[in-house]
């Protein structure tokens, strides 16, 4: 845009006059599922044990920023490492919204 510096920081939506804060670290995590087990089951786990989860095969994982649910994503393999493609993001006022195509 004319008159704007290329490296200027964008304003945070809903907070006019505030610049975005680019240097703060936020922990993101993708949660496949969770399961409650008894202490006996826990101590009996060994290499090769299988924990069956309740989430169906092919269902998206939940994406969190710290402890806040952001949306969901699809697990992928990119260059021999796990990755997550964003499938949908929550809107603070209306709930999940579809990702842009």
Structure description:
The model is unreliable at 1-7 (pLDDT under 50). The chain has one helix at 39-43, and strands at 11-12, 15-19, 28-31, 61-65, 68-78, 81-91, 95-98. Helix content is 5%, strand content 42%. It has one domain: SpoA-like (Surface presentation of antigens (SPOA), Roll), CATH 2.30.330. The strands form two sheets. A five-stranded antiparallel β-sheet has the order 3-4-5-6-7, with no helix packed on it. A two-stranded antiparallel ribbon has the order 1-2. The chain is mainly β and 101 residues long.
In angstroms, what is the radius of gyration?
A: 19 Å
Which sequence of SSEs, written as H and E, runs from N to C? Answer: EEEHEEEE
End-to-end span in angstroms?
25 Å
Per the CATH scheme, the topology name is: Surface presentation of antigens (SPOA)
The proportion of residues in beta strands is: 35-45%
Short descriptors:
single chain, 101 residues, mainly beta, Surface presentation of antigens (SPOA), two-stranded antiparallel ribbon, 7 strands, disordered N terminus
Structure described in brief:
This protein has 101 residues and is mainly β. 5% of the residues lie in helices and 42% in strands.
Topology:
Blueprint (H helix, E strand, L loop, with lengths): L10 E2 L2 E5 L8 E4 L7 H5 L17 E5 L2 E11 L2 E11 L3 E4 L3
Antiparallel strand pairs: 1-2, 3-4, 4-5, 5-6, 6-7
């Amino acid at each position: 845009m004319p008159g704007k510096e290329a490296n200027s920081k964008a304003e945070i939506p809903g907070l006019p006059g505030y610049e975005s804060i680019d240097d703060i670290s936020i922990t993101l995590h993708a949660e496949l599922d969770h399961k409650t087990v008894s202490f006996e089951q826990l101590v009996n786990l060994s290499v090769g044990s299988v924990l069956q989860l309740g989430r169906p095969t092919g269902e998206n994982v939940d994406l969190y920023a710290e402890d806040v649910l952001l949306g969901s994503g699809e697990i992928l393999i990119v260059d021999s490492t796990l990755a997550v493609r964003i499938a949908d993001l929550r809107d603070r006022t209306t709930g999940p919204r579809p990702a842009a195509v």
